[in-house]
Design brief:
heterodimer; A: mainly alpha; two-stranded antiparallel ribbon; B: alpha/beta; six-stranded mixed beta sheet; about 25% strand
Chain lengths: ~400, ~240
């Protein structure tokens, strides 16, 4: 961490600050390479690379949901459905074509998985996006469950029910290079033998995907679409009066978020080499929402920190315990994943009291949850739905 | 060739089962200020919302010049040039004044020079906004927010600007300023449809006016005429 700290010390003048920013990014990039490589080389710490891969996938997921929740302001509690769609589409289509595609299967499957995510997003979005806040949340929650139950019940004979995919005996083809690197790049270091494992390979793929997502989202945020989202979130009626097509903007947010979920899903499937409905429960949706709320809605850095905390820490504790670094009785290890709900619940309550805007909030969002804004928020709660469904009530009282 | 900008013919609008507009007909000619006055629940805002596309009428037609716009969604009506400044100063509280104004020009994205010019015009009309251009909308006073909402409407270069209760909740001094600006805007060529509770104020600036009573038009006439109409004076101007 030393590198990042020196780089972020404040310097005078804009020239100095851009330089320190560059230094910070270079430092971060180096850190992101050195840390997993060190883990991989050190005897007995290889499992940490695996955890980083999982965290990375969750960063991707959370970045996607952040478009929907953070930018467009739509609460989606069934986001994991898009993740599932991506995973199942990637595996099912991939298996049909793997004899032709070979090592390219994963890369090619990114496309149908992204499409499956986005199309599911649109399919859900069209009928439900006229609903507001709470109702939308409930419908999306229901949708997430429907998808999981369909998968569980072996819908169309495709998903193999609760036993999951691929079916016994079949295997997903690892991407090009993963095996070659594992077989050829290995050497001894003072801390142990370094092997360019498949986990490390996946780590770099996931980091690459996250970087692409971050670049796309940053660009979106600066675009007309991004401005329309902000306007829509702040005041739907006024945004419409400015000529923003509310429905289209919401659909964009929904499908772009779902697309990211689909990509995360197929990556998860190929990393894990196995998927089953168990990975796509309602609690997983809740986790993604937690990551965003904890990290800071609409903030990319916040989302990354949130994923590191919420996904990384329980896995880390469990991993350390399994590896024997942390001495825990066997029964405690199996309970860690149960306890995390307790801990996160508590964490959320504390956070809402102390820092409701999240750990690293976006500058605009940070202003939204301050008490002196309360009166304003009340006014803003009125959406187009209210206007359309308003009874003849007096709103003219001075 | 007529110079009628907007014509509303026999429009009926419902909230669920309740018929809020029972056959409203009105027109606005180019260069006019036309006002709709009436009591609470008379259907003034409903009329505006129906024109702007927030609500769609069950019967009747709304035409902009010779083009039917009834039933179109809000953003399309806005794109045609009918811009509503919604009731209750719906500005974007966490955007700066400049960002708010730029949102008004959302549909003019290929016209950077024109947008800049419009922005200059808004700042000429409302020097206060120029002073506060980098301030967040939510931190402005009520009057300034109303100015900002109107400025945002002007940024869209409307063929018809519809103002919904611009005096709502404002101090009398500020109301004066707002109405002076409305007159000035109109003299510069903007056609305005104005909905107001403050009937005296509205009628004093308007060329023509309509009086709404429970969903239908009870009276119509020139602004000065209505201002001196006995019934209007009794009901809406609080004279006995």
């Amino acid at each position: 961490m030393g590198g990042t700290k020196t780089a972020s010390t404040p310097t005078n003048g804009s020239k100095g600050s851009t330089r320190s920013k560059t230094l910070l990014y270079v430092g971060l990039a180096l850190l992101m390479i050195i840390v997993p490589v060190t883990f991989q080389a050190a005897t007995g710490l290889g499992f940490l690379v695996r955890i980083l891969v999982v965290v990375g996938i969750w960063v991707l997921l959370a970045l996607g949901l952040n478009i929907v929740v953070g930018y467009a302001g739509l609460l989606d509690l069934g986001y994991i459905a898009f993740y599932a769609m991506g995973a199942y589409a990637g595996v099912l289509i991939g298996q049909s074509f793997s004899s032709v595609l070979g090592g390219a299967t994963y890369w090619v499957m990114l496309v149908p998985a992204a499409i499956a995510g986005a199309v599911t997003g649109l399919a859900l979005g069209f009928p439900v996006l006229r609903l507001r806040g709470d109702y939308l949340a409930i419908v999306t929650l229901g949708f997430g469950e429907i998808v999981r139950i369909c998968l569980n019940n072996n819908i169309f004979g495709l998903t193999n029910g609760a036993t999951g995919l691929p079916k016994g005996g079949d295997q997903l083809v690892p991407p090009f290079g993963a095996i070659w690197l594992q077989d050829h790049v290995r050497f001894d270091t003072p801390i142990g033998q370094f092997v360019f494992s498949q986990n490390l390979f996946w780590y770099f793929i996931v980091v690459l995907l996250c970087i692409i997502a971050i670049i796309v989202i940053t660009r979106l945020d600066d675009s007309r679409l991004g401005r329309a989202w902000v306007a829509m979130r702040e005041n739907e009626v006024a945004a419409a009066a400015c000529g923003v097509n509310i429905m289209t903007q919401k659909l964009w947010a929904f499908s772009l978020g779902a697309l990211s979920g689909g990509v995360a899903g197929v990556t998860f499937a190929y990393v894990q080499q196995f998927i089953s409905p168990e990975s796509f429960t309602f609690m997983e949706s809740v986790f993604v929402v937690c990551i965003i709320v904890l990290g800071g809605m609409g903030s990319i850095r916040g989302v990354i920190v949130g994923a590191l905390l919420i996904r990384g820490i329980p896995d880390l504790i469990q991993g350390l315990a399994v590896a024997g670094v942390l001495k825990l009785p066997g029964s405690a290890i199996s309970m860690i994943s149960g306890y995390r709900f307790l801990v996160f619940g508590l964490l959320m309550v504390i956070m809402m009291a102390v820092r409701p805007q999240g750990i690293i909030p976006s500058s605009r969002r940070a202003r939204e949850l301050r008490p002196d804004d309360e009166r304003q928020l009340e006014e803003e709660d009125q959406t187009m739905w209210d206007v359309e469904h308003r009874e003849q009530v007096s709103v003219h009282n001075p | 060739m007529s110079n009628t900008v907007l014509s509303v013919e026999n429009v009926h609008t419902f909230y669920g089962q309740i018929e809020a507009l029972k056959g409203i007909s009105l027109y606005v000619d180019s260069g006019e200020i036309v006002t709709l006055i009436g009591a609470n629940g008379a259907g003034k805002s409903t009329t505006l919302n129906t024109i702007s596309g927030l609500l769609s009428p069950k019967a009747g037609s709304i035409k902009l010049f010779d083009e039917v716009i009834s039933g179109l969604p809000v953003h399309k009506v806005t794109a045609k040039g009918v811009v509503q400044v919604p009731e209750g100063r719906r500005i974007f509280p966490r955007m700066t004044v400049e960002e708010n104004l730029n949102m008004g020009a959302f549909l003019r994205n290929k016209d950077a020079a024109g947008i800049k010019e419009s922005m200059g015009r808004v700042f000429d009309l409302f020097p206060r906004l120029k002073e506060r251009r980098t301030q967040k909308g939510g931190t402005l006073s009520g009057g300034e927010q109303q100015m900002l909402a109107m400025g945002r409407g002007i940024m869209a270069k409307p063929k018809l600007l519809m103002l919904d209760e611009p005096s709502m909740g404002l101090a009398p001094v500020v109301v004066e300023t707002i109405f002076e600006t409305i007159e000035k805007l109109n003299q510069e060529g903007t056609t305005i449809l104005l909905v107001e509770q403050n009937a005296a104020m509205a009628l004093s600036v308007a060329h023509r006016g309509y009086v709404l009573e429970v969903g239908s038009i009870a009276l119509e006439g020139l602004g000065t005429e209505l201002l001196h109409n006995e019934q209007v004076r009794k009901t809406y101007l609080g004279e006995s």
